[in-house]
Each structure stands twice: as structure tokens, then as C-alpha cells.
Amino acid sequence: MTSHEIDYQIYGEEMQYVEIELDPQEAVVAEAGSFMMMDNGIQMNTIFGDGANQNEGLMGKLFSAGKRLLTGESLFMTVFHNQDKGVRRVSFASPYPGKIVPLDLRQFNGKFICQKDAFLCAAKGVTVGIEFSKNLGRGLFGGEGFIMQKLEGDGLAFIHAGGTLARKELGSGEVLKVDTGCIVGFSQTVDYNIEFIGGIKNTVFGGEGLFYATLRGPGIVYIQSLPFSRLAGRIYASAPQGGGQQRGEGSILGGLGNLLDGDNRF
């Protein structure tokens, strides 16, 4: 194996975190901001990109960082390296309610494709790259643009899904239609495309957008029930305008209470 062999344990239900067990000289690479806690003896280093091209000079580092810039992620990632003589542990937390999904990339023939913000952490040696869409419709209307992330290597990687996770194993030619934001990731054998929903009533009054994704097997697909964009949209829609505190939301006295407080905004 070219990737480090790591052990892990996932804790929690709604707000999970993954604890990575590192033997001496083993390392794990993670997204900036996902770190939770670690044992003494682990050294933390910030690097360009995913660390896969660190031995290829300045151009290799710049290329690795440039790939992350195209996916909208930070130029930097963090490596946690066990420099102690014994086993040490480091933990990474999920960014919002959902499930952490462990992926053994050997079971996906060394490659897994996921949405841009799904990656959490991986064994050192796993490459976090970009996957360009070959389909114009997918790039324009797919919700993820022309670019998705691809995880390549022979080690363990961890991705995060919002809400409840569904794992679907599609047979050859089997099609699954999914809201574009609900896709977490899929194996490289799955064909991914975008279709127009169609129908005037569906388009104008459906409230589900104009397009959905079609996933054609064979392969494995992970679906999330709560995309972060949907969660953020609901929070923003429920927030009172102007940053004020809203009282009695959902009741007829809500607006009256604001008026009595001298707040004329309903």
C-alpha cells in the first residue's frame, strides 16, 4: 500500500466524530477546521494541497494546491503525524448534523467521486483531486458545477453526509433519480447526468427546482437527506430581518408583540 494503514472508531449519532488511531510515523490529512482533539506526541503541520505532491518540488505543491482552489476549498490542508514511540489518537468532528462515512478506496478500485464539501479526512497518501464534468448540462445545472472532488489511492478516506444517509447499490443499467444537492458521492462506474423535470406546473409550482440528477449503475451511491445548502437556506429564511429577535413566531401575537415593543417591522 502507498497510503498509511490507519485504524478508526466513529462516535456519536447526530453529531459524529471519528477517532483515528496512528501507529508511530503514521499520518492523516484533514480539511482545515475539522480538527477536534489529539493526544500528546502528534505533530500538526499545515501544507499546500493534500500532501500527495510534496516530494515533487515547488511545482508539485502548487499543482496540488491549485486543484483545491478549483473546487472552492482552502489552499491548505493539515497533516497530523505521530512522532511518538507509541500509538496515538487524533479526532475530527463532522461540521453539521449527519453521518461520517468511512471509505476503503481499495473497494472502489482506487477512486471515489464526491461533492466538493463532503471530504473530512484521509490516510496520508490518499490524493484529493478534481473531477471535471464531461457533460455540459451537468456542469451548468447540476448544482455542483463542472467540478467535483475525487479521492484516489489505496487507503481509508472519510466523508460527511448531512441528515440521514442512504446507501444504494445500483445494478447494471439501473437508474436512480435524485435531487442534485442530496448526492454525497458515488463509485467511478456510476454514470451521472442531469435531466429537466418538465411540465409547466412542475416548473412553476413544484418547488423542487428545474432539474434532478440521474445516476445509472452499476455502482454504489451515497445519498444524504439534509444537504448543507438546504439547511442553511431554512435557517436564513427563519432568521428575523435586520438581525432583531423575533417573538411569538408562528402565532398571531408575533407581529403585535413587535409593535408593542416599538419595533414596527413585521
TrEMBL record:
Q: Which InterPro entries match?
A: AIM24 (IPR002838), AIM24_sf (IPR036983), Trp_RNA-bd_attenuator-like_dom (IPR016031)
Pfam families according to UniProt: AIM24
- What's the name of the protein? TIGR00266 family protein
Q: What is the lineage of its organism?
A: Bacteria, Pseudomonadati, Bacteroidota, Flavobacteriia, Flavobacteriales
